[in-house]
Every structure is written in structure tokens, then in C-alpha cells.
Specification:
CATH topology: CBS-domain
Distance between the termini: 29 Å
Number of strands: 5
Largest sheet: 3 strands, mixed
Bound molecules: adenosine monophosphate
Order of helices and strands: HEHEEHHHEEH
Radius of gyration: 18 Å
Structural class: alpha+beta
Number of domains: 1
Strand content: 15-25%
CATH architecture: Roll
Helix content: 40-55%
Length: 143
């Protein structure tokens, strides 16, 4: 199963922000949209970073509430691990587990095509397991 299949179900909408925005602005977006991370894009709409709720928590824990006025660029992760539409879900799960992050932007030919979260991956794995067990039940019943 590929990343493209997950995006076919969840859609390709990506919430983005820019490096000069503040952590407070991003916190409001994360809360409103019920998401855990935001992709940071540059002038050419290229991916220049990712900022997750963990980065905001870390910044506030270290610096106090004043960190919320800091620019996104100060706290984002600039070396973003991305995936492609044709990547397998297994390789995506490996990247998430190995890198200890829960969000991966999907980039194809330099274009941001979507974001996959650990929640999307788990939902797809569960649906797959259910389909497999249903097929097994039918096989056993017809034997
Ligand atoms: P998360 O588990 O997604 O909340 O992110 C945990 C940490 O990993 C935060 O510091 C994020 O900025 C960073 N992070 C999240 N997603 C990625 C990614 N795809 N590539 C690199 N770092 C990431």
C-alpha cells in the first residue's frame, strides 16, 4: 500500500505557515484545525521546515509564555523528512519510528502534495487488518 492511497482517502489539503509567523499564531491554527503540526513554506511554496505542538511545548517550557511571540523559524525543524506518493506505508512507518516524529509531508517533484500523520497510518493499518480478517472468515465459512 502506498502513501497515495492514504491521501486519496484523507485529501490533499495542507495547512501551512511562514517562518516569520509567531508560535502563538501557529498554536491558534493547530487548535482550530485539530492538527498536531504545521508545514512551514518559503516564498516559492517550498518546504523549509515543520513545527509541531511538541516544539511549542518545548519552547514554552524553556522560555516561558514569552516564547509564544517568537518567530516560527526559531523553533521549527528545518531538516524535514518527506515522503513521496509512491512510497510504501511500511517505509513511512519506519521513518516515523526511527525519527520519532508523527507527521510527514508528501512532496512530489518539488510540490507539496499532502501530509500524513501517525493517526492516518494507524487508521489505514486497522482498515487493512479488518479486510484481511473478513476475507479469512469468509474463506473458513466456505471451506
Ligand atoms: P511530532 O511527533 O510530529 O510532534 O514531532 C516531534 C519533533 O519532530 C518536533 O521537533 C518536530 O519539529 C519534528 N518533526 C515532525 N515531523 C518531522 C518530519 N517529517 N521531519 C523532521 N522532523 C519532524
Amino acid at each position: 500500500m502506498t502513501v497515495a492511497r492514504i491521501l486519496a482517502t484523507k485529501g490533499r489539503d495542507v495547512i501551512t505557515t511562514q517562518p516569520h509567523r509567531t508560535l502563538h499564531e501557529v498554536a491558534k491554527i493547530l487548535a482550530e484545525k485539530h492538527i498536531g503540526a504545521i508545514v512551514v513554506t518559503g516564498a516559492d511554496h517550498d518546504v523549509v521546515g515543520i513545527l509541531s505542538e511538541r516544539d511549542i511545548v518545548k519552547a514554552v517550557a524553556k522560555k516561558g509564555a514569552s516564547a509564544l511571540e517568537d518567530a516560527v523559524s526559531r523553533h521549527m525543524t528545518a531538516r524535514v523528512v518527506t515522503t513521496t506518493l509512491s512510497s510504501t506505508i511500511n517505509s513511512l512507518m519506519e521513518a516515523m519510528t526511527g525519527g520519532r516524529f508523527r507527521h510527514v509531508p508528501v512532496v512530489q517533484n518539488g510540490r507539496l502534495e499532502g501530509v500524513v500523520s501517525i493517526g492516518d497510518v494507524v487508521a489505514h493499518r486497522l482498515a487493512d487488518i479488518e479486510t484481511e480478517s473478513q476475507a479469512l472468515r469468509e474463506y473458513i465459512a466456505s471451506a
